Amino acid sequence: MSRAFRASAVLAACAVLGGPVLTAQSDEGMWLPTDPPRQQLKDKYGFDLTDAWAARAMRASVRFGGASGGFVSPDGLIVTNHHVGADSIHKLSTKDRDLLRDGFYAKTRSEELKCPDMELNVLQSIEDVTDRVNAAVKPQMTTAQAFAARRAVMAEIEKESLTATGLRSDVVTLYQGGLYHLYRSKKYTDVRLVFAPETGIAAFGGDVDNFEYPRHGLDVCFFRAYENDAPAKVADFFKWNTTGPAENDLVFVTGHPGTTNRLETLAKLKHRRDVTLPYTLYRLRTLEAALTQFSEQSPEQRRRASADLHRVANARKAFAGQIQGLLDPKILGQKRDAEAQFADTLKTQLTGSGQADERYQKSLRRIADLQAVFAGFEKNYYLIERGDAFYSELFAVARHCARMADELPRKSADRLREYRDSNLDSLKLQLYSPAPLYPDLERRKLEASLTFLAENLGGDHPLVVRVLDGKNPAARATELVADTKLFDVAERKKLVEGGKTAVDASTDPLVKLARAIDADARVVRKRYEEEVEEPERQAYAEIARLRFLALGRTVPPDATFTLRLAFGTVKGYEVDGAALPFHTTFAGAFARADALGNRDPFELPSRWRDGKAKLDLSTPFDFVSTADTIGGNSGSPVLNRAGELVGINFDRNRHGLVRNFVYTDIQARHIAVHSRAVLEALRKLYGAGELVKELTGQE
């Protein structure tokens, strides 16, 4: 391929991602750790990213479920965001000991608190298994047969890997079906809380400042991984940089970005805009209203609902930003132009590649047709199978118990994906969690979601009638929660170990409900997998093959909650003619609190108000950079050229919410806590000298 065509192809690729035609040297990309853009980094920044640098960053990065973190000492110490750790902090709290409100610090290892159900994963290797997965799907297969064959071979690969290595093994789909990689990860299930600041400073500004900048939040907490009841010994960790980043510094973000949609077609994005996102926002606003009302009834109810309310409110604001992006005519217009441009590229440059443009257009039409198919049953799929109608931890437990009775007797390759052998230990860790569940909160959540079910399907719908069983949503939720035994972990184990006999004989109302809707749920799931997911995957895989043929691997895959490496520069930006600095300071936090009357959510904790004179108020607090991040990057280590930790990513600004669909660095920024801010607070406000010494070697 000529150099001129390669350059134009890269520009076309950027356009196909759905955004403005950026230069080939933009900082776009959530790159695989095994395939970073080395030449781009060398050409633009003079940085040689070595294999050793990338491998160490991979093995020092930690996955927290749907978020990120990193090892910061050889003794298993891990840093992440406070809001990432909040679920575990909440579960460790009680009515008389609210660790979210008051904070926590373990001065000695013996005081570190064991989290009831936390699993951390550290990626060890990536293996390309695309050929094996694709070979299992034969051309003559129906979509149902193709889906079953693909699911079976992925489960076989995972089981073989787990047996051979003992590592968690997951086959990950990339480029919507263009590639399949086997990720092997070391798992830690003994994880203990070391330090957490008060929510008042970790989430300073609350929902008002969420996705905004300037920010003044100490959104960090520390955990420690243990093995054999002793702190884990890790060879790879990020050295804590005591200076932090300067303006225009090159920085890297290593973490687990959730879901981007940059490689989706115009038709798919329109479907998100017009169908999926409006439904999602309706649901989130319904839940947020219910949880807010519950929280206002007493301080204890506010504490109990805090984790749920934060998750729902954060999601609502993020998805609202996404729909604003898709309602911007320029974004979809760019996608429309990009698809036409890529078609022209295929026609003119790949004339000998088997009617490349015709294959491309056929795939686009196929994906467009599938959106209409999905629209016909999408609500039912979300409500019944995804569980939107049953927003309750207790119902999730009941469904797993009921489904495991049916799935576990089958071969791993024939089960629903969540019940494959390679995932069972992780599933049981959650299922048997001793973390407290609160009847009043579970009842309120169920009432809200059962009402949502009836609002969407109608009171006379057969499924609604069956679920409500002759009662209104409030009475039905009260009955389900009052009579269930699933608060008791021993009861859950009894059902799972007893298998189908125990589940069929159970009189538990939630188990009976799970069984009563399971046939309907499986029907709609099967329809989605065979009529939408599989044919859509095949169409996207064809587009990916054409992209590889024309562009090679110059375009990174969409994010998939797997480890990625992003990079950018530390710099501020302008809004409405006002220049925003690349970092804020401690002084700014006190000034903002004073300006807003020290009232919630701008009320600084008493420790900070009383300790103001101890602090160097010029200390940088939070900073921004252009690195490409998304939801899931919360807790991601921010690194300098030496691979040292200079910050902890915790948010995007509102201009960055469009990055689900397009990368831009004009105003979009990710936001991180400055490494100096953490040390200043630990030393002078929290008396955490031992923790500082572990991080830096100095008290």
TrEMBL record:
GO terms for biological process: peptide catabolic process; proteolysis. Catalyzes the removal of dipeptides from the N-terminus of oligopeptides. Its EC number is 3.4.14.-. Belongs to the peptidase S46 family. Pfam families: Peptidase_S46. This is Dipeptidyl-peptidase. The keyword Membrane does not apply. Keywords: Aminopeptidase, Hydrolase, Protease, Serine protease, Signal. InterPro entries: Pep_S46, Peptidase_S1_PA, Peptidase_S1_PA_chymotrypsin. The lineage of its organism: Bacteria, Pseudomonadati, Planctomycetota, Planctomycetia, Gemmatales. The keyword Acyltransferase does not apply.
